[in-house]
Amino acid sequence: GTAQIGVSGLAVMGRNLARNFARHGYTVALHNRSAERTHELVDQFGDEGTFVPAESAEQFVAALERPRRLVVMVKAGGPTDAVIDQFAPLLESGDMIIDGGNAHFADTRRREAALREKGIHFVGTGISGGEEGALNGPSIMPGGSPESYQALGPLLEDISAKAADGSPCCAHVGADGAGHFVKMVHNGIEYADMQLIAEAYDLLRHAAGLEPAAIADTFRRWNTGRLDSYLVEITAEVLAHTDAATGRPFVDVVADEAEQKGTGRWTVQIALELGVPVSGIAEAVFARSVSGHTDLRAVGGRLSGPGRAALGADEAAAFVDKIEHALYASKVVSYTQGFHQVQAAGAEYGWTLDLGAVAGIWRGGCIIRAAFLDRITAAYAKDPQLPSLLADDGFAAEIAEAQDAWRDVVATAVRLGVPVPGFSTALAYYDALRAERLPAALTQGQRDFFGAHTYRRVDRDGVFHTLWSEDRTEEQQ
Ligand code: NDP
């Protein structure tokens, strides 16, 4: 074979990845279950590079130089297994199957283990950036073995997005499912970022009393500072847009029921299993869920509360700046929680992770790309063992500076009756970490009372139980 890389599954994502490889000078073998897509690609884009179309799995495998690199870009779940089962018997030791679909990392771990027995490298790879990213440079999060990355990394780095400093938004994340895991957490953080921006918008509108066009200007201004990011940039675009049919702000004619495809939910489910508090991501998932419950929201008309009277003009101007502080501080907390989840998964699944490099991958190509990610890379470069991003002096100092404003924003939102689950859960997490004593001591007492679940003491080692229903003496277990 002559092709350096092959792509099987030529719907939007696979087609654009194949074109991206070809535009970078690679010879690309093409395959799809139904051959029409393969021919369509060659007909429409054949002049962009060198393609080797294959009608069958056998032809496709034969078209590839060894060790073979097969990118599978099909529907996640059953279809991915079907395609793997089709190719695996045709491959030889050292060949690589790269799954670029949105697989659940547990499936990736299972597939990697099964293929490893046959000497085949299975490289579960998170790819972010949608169609446009696939064509012009996505953010790429490959898992799998370090050996496979040696053979594959240079190609993936070539076609990936590039950060502002020119470095590729692609790096080997860790063994087996690490790539897909990190992609999942990326999506969870994306949910949290979007929720925080939504709360900032809600407060700019209903507390500061600004109209969408003015709010768009506010986000544009914020986008020149520490909040500089793709999501803040598109927020301004969406808010500035006017509906052609009605002449009203676009944001006012869109039904306020947010949908989800499920990766945010996965992130929270896995966090619960790992015992990692990702409250920012969880609140974001739940906020979308609440918005979609029209049945519950119909009850709201009968519930009393403040009427969201905007602040006075003099207070409102200062409040806008305070919202920026609240948004930034809450964002730092969300990322802190997301990175904690990645770190905990590394310990659980035996991945050697470079968390600074993970932040680096996200600097371009993906939805959460932001200037701010450089700061995270720098924090982990300074101390790779950082137990939490909040332990970094730089972030701690910024939050120290932001926190009076942050507290005022949450308090004002509560007073006005504007829901800010993201801002307030982030602040609660921050204050929980700061607390010298948590009421968890009382929780432990209750658990011991009703279930003899035992407790530890602050002053002595050991495990204890109080005989609550007898004479309340304490026993050491
Ligand atoms: P789809 O998820 O719509 O999948 C369509 C492709 O899967 C077609 O090539 C189809 O072949 C193939 N396929 C479906 N079932 C089977 C099967 N049983 N056996 C063989 N082939 C099958 O394509 P997309 O391009 O939208 O997405 C591809 C992957 O990338 C998905 O896992 C998706 O989740 C992920 N994705 C990632 C995005 C990102 O930003 N990272 C964005 C969008 C998607 P046929 O033409 O013969 O029907």
From TrEMBL:
Q: Which reaction does it catalyse?
A: 6-phospho-D-gluconate + NADP(+) = D-ribulose 5-phosphate + CO2 + NADPH
InterPro entries according to UniProt:
6-PGluconate_DH-like_C_sf, 6PGD_dom2, 6PGDH_C, 6PGDH_Gnd/GntZ, 6PGDH_NADP-bd, 6PGdom_BS, NAD(P)-bd_dom_sf, Pgluconate_DH
Give residue ranges for domain 6-phosphogluconate dehydrogenase C-terminal. Answer: 179-469
Q: How does it assemble?
A: Homodimer.
Q: Which SMART domains match?
A: 6PGD
* Annotated binding of NADP(+), by residue: 9-14, 32-34, 74-76, 102
Please state the pathway this protein functions in, per its UniProt record: Carbohydrate degradation; pentose phosphate pathway; D-ribulose 5-phosphate from D-glucose 6-phosphate (oxidative stage): step 3/3
Active-site annotation: 183 (proton acceptor), 190 (proton donor)
For biological process, the GO terms are: D-gluconate metabolic process; pentose-phosphate shunt
Respond yes or no to whether keyword NADP is given for this record.
yes
Q: Which organism is it from?
A: Haloactinopolyspora alba
Which purpose does this protein serve, as stated in its record?
Answer: Catalyzes the oxidative decarboxylation of 6-phosphogluconate to ribulose 5-phosphate and CO(2), with concomitant reduction of NADP to NADPH.
Keywords assigned by UniProt, alphabetized: Gluconate utilization, NADP, Oxidoreductase, Pentose shunt
Single GO molecular-function term?
A: NADP binding
Where on this chain does substrate bind? 102, 128-130, 186-187, 191, 261, 288, 447, 453
Would the keyword NADP be found if you checked this record's keyword annotation? Answer: yes
- The name this protein carries in UniProt is 6-phosphogluconate dehydrogenase, decarboxylating
EC number of this enzyme = 1.1.1.44
